[in-house]
Amino acid sequence: MPLSDLRFLALNAWLKRIFNADVTPTLISGDASFRRYFRVQHKDISYIVMDSPPELIKVLPFVNLANAYSDKGVDVPQVIEVNAEDGFLLLSDLGDIQLLSVLNSDNVYAYYRDALRLLDKVSLVIDNGESGLPLYDAAFVQLELDIFSDWLIKRHLVIELDEKTQNMLKTAFSFLIENVEAQPKVGMHRDYHSRNLMLQNEQLKVIDFQDAVLGPVTYDAVSLLRDCYVRWPDALVEQLMTQHFEQVKSSGQLDRGVSIATYTRWFDLMGLQRHIKAAGIFSRLKYRDDKPAYMADIPLTLEYIRDISARYPELEIFSAWIADSIIPAVEAKL
C-alpha cells in the first residue's frame, strides 16, 4: 500500500501494538461498501483485519452482531481485538473459499440444503444484544426500490421517465411493498448468498451480516436460491424453496395454515424486489463508489426481474418494460 495511505499507516501501528512485532497486512478485498479487508500472519496464525472508516461505517454494530450470531450457534468471524475510535477490527480468518467457488450441478442441492437449515439459527437473531434490529418496513423497502430508478435508470441509462412509466413503476413497487408487509417477520441477514458463505473444513461460515434487520420470512431463502451471481434450474429452486417452506412451518415461524401457493408468491415477489434493488446498487457502486466490476452482474438480475414478474398479471406491463426497454438499453452500454 502507498505510504500516502494514512489509514494503512495507522492500521500498521495498531497491529504492531497488538502483536508487539512488525506484521505485513496484505489487502485481500474491499466489499460493496467503504470497508477494506487485510490478512496478516503472526506466529503461523492467520488473521483478518477490517478497516472501516468510522465517519462512514462504525465497527461496533458489526461487533455486537457477531456476538449475537455466535450466541445463536452461527459460525461467524470471532472478534479478537477492537479499535472503535479508528475503525479497526482484528478477526479470526475463515479462509478464502467462498461457497460460490465450489458449487456445481452435483453438489449444489446438498450445500444449499445445509445453508437453508442454517437459516433456522440466523432467523433467531432479532437484536444485537443492546437493541432490536431495524424493521425492514415499507419506508425501508421504498428507499431500496428508488435506488433502481435513481441509479440504473436515470444515472446509468440516462432515461427520463414519462408520467405513464412513472405511474407504472409506482404501482409495481407498491405491489412489492405490500408483499413485504404481508409476511411474518424474522431475523434477516439481508445479504445471504453464495459469496457471503465461506467453507472452512467443509462447514458453512457466515460473513457480511452487519446490515441484519427484522424482515420477511422468505427474504434470506430467496436471496440464496435466486442468487444475483448465479442462476440454477427452476426445478431445483422450487425443490429447495419447498424445503424452506416446510422448515419454517416446523419451526413455528410460519403459520401452518399458510399454503405453499401463498409462500411461493411471497418468495417470488420478495426475490423480485431484491433483484430490482441489486440492479440499482450495482450501478451506484460504479458511479458513486468507483467500483465498476459489479456492472457485469446487472444482466442476470434483469433476467430474473423479467422472468419472475411475467408470472404475475399485476406485473405484466412492468415485465414487458424490462424486456423491451431496459434490457436492450443495458446491453447497448456493455
UniProtKB/TrEMBL annotation:
Keyword Cell wall biogenesis/degradation annotated: no
Q: List, in alphabetical order, the Gene Ontology terms for molecular function in this entry.
A: ATP binding; transferase activity
Q: Which residues form the Aminoglycoside phosphotransferase domain?
A: 26-241
Q: Provide the alphabetized UniProt keywords.
A: ATP-binding, Nucleotide-binding, Transferase
Transmembrane segment boundaries: none
Q: According to the lineage, what is the superkingdom?
A: Bacteria
State the Pfam families in the record: APH
Which protein, by its recorded name, is this? Aminoglycoside phosphotransferase
